[in-house]
Specification:
Layout: H1 2-45
Amino acid sequence: MMARRTARAGATRSALVKRPVFSWSLRDAQLRLTRRAVLPCFSEIVPG
């Protein structure tokens, strides 16, 4: 019984650890995409 409980706790802990990393990687990818899309516009608007 205890082993099952500890296994469940470990699973939830790993899920809690993985979720922020997944969201951060998603956010990083989105930022990279938006930066890649926005930079040409800025280079066109700003002379030089």
